[in-house]
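Complex record, two chains
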Amino acid sequence: MEAVTQNLDLYWAGFRTSLGICLVAMVGSLLLGTVIAACRVSPVPPLRGLGTFWVNTFRNTPLSVVLFFCAFGLPEIGINRSFYFFGVLGLVLYTSAFVCEAIRSGINSVSAGQAEAARSVGLTFTQSLRFVVLPQALRTVVPPLGSVIIAMFKNSAVVGAFGVGADLFSVGNTLTSARGFETLPVFTGVAIGYLAITLPAGALLQVIERKVAIAR
Amino acid sequence: MSEQAVLYDAPGPRAKRRVAIGTAAAVVLILALVYVVFDRLADRGQFTMEKWGPLVNPSNENFSLVWNVLAEGLVNTLKAAALAMVLSVVLGTVIAVGRLSLGRAGRLPLVAIVELLRGLPVVILIYYGVRVLPDVGVDLSGLPGGRVLWGLVLGLTLYNMVIFAEVVRAGVLSLPRGQREAALATGLTNGQAMRIVLLPQAFRVMLPAIISQLVVVLKDTSLITFVGNFDELLGQGESVQRNLDNPIQTFVVIALLYISLNYALSRLAQYIQQRQARAGRSAGGRIAEQTTTAGA
């Protein structure tokens, strides 16, 4: 276990980098995913088609392929950035598809009668969205969106394995390959680092789920 | 269209006009975007036969070589995915049955294992299977297919079996209580009731969720690229593009291969779901949406 205790500072730095990747990617994918979801439920057919295409493409492609495409493909057309940029970009593109589906399923879970009732009492489109549909949709969206974000934190390990460097997974790689520590203790430390986020987050999500659950 | 009914009524003449204007604007916007991308690609010579030939032109000197390499990768991907799928569904069912039928003391370790494995990134579990196991003296190289294949399968199985366990458990719990009570009343034992009455129905209810998790298994086989040497689809594609210097073209083809495999699986899930809804033979609740298939 001294492989871990000796290098606690490295682990800590890696942990923060992982959190950083996750935070940036979270903001990015929530924004992008919301836009795509808006496209998918819009009354304009080409936008719906675009949304469907986007979701089907990124949901069915492995994250690793998306990452490879970003990091090796984009420089070919003159987009040269750091690996960190490509890693986060890949994670955002990939996760946005799942965010979109979570939001869309939330909107669709509001029963049609709710919006019809809102319209028949004379609320405008924005009003019925603002006071009737969205408050209910957001509640159902929270649990699946939470698990998408937790999955994204776990996927940041893939971004690390891809070679972003200095994140939690890469710290494990460095310690085992460059410094010759044994794999078992080093990667147990890495695993604990991930569990330190995913376990509390999962528990928190369950509490929230119970709080916001509505009987239908 | 029907699923958008929540947000707006059937369009009247004014709304139709707005939709038409929106459609025109969106088409122009999308075409402009496509044009920019194509222009950029053409500008950088990404449409030349030099780049695409080995992948799409059968008379190209490298065509058969490239596709042999890719086909080998495809076979290995499918092999690893199939093994991991079978193992994780079987073990997941065992865990689910354990959690449902054991007492509190027996359940506790199972719950701990499920929570622990669900919280770990799958790439780390694959790392354990491929790199850590040999270091602690577990030798899988005697197994047919080799050490790396089984390490990968083990990692994928550890991660996915607990997800299948949760899915199957949710399926059993969604059944009306009367199913189990009736089974016991006719004189079946607990085990028989589970095997003959509850599990078959649970599987039927949860099949869509199970199949969408199978898509995840298939995608995750590609993670081995970062951990060890195994000639699966992505790894093979990587070496193709390194030799031919055509990353965009190769990865597009690789992505299309994954997409078509997964699309076929998803369509199968949809088809089964629809057939089930029509047949309405299961007593189970409809909870197949929403469960544990997010991300990863």
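Note: The two ends of chain B are 30 Å apart (CA to CA).
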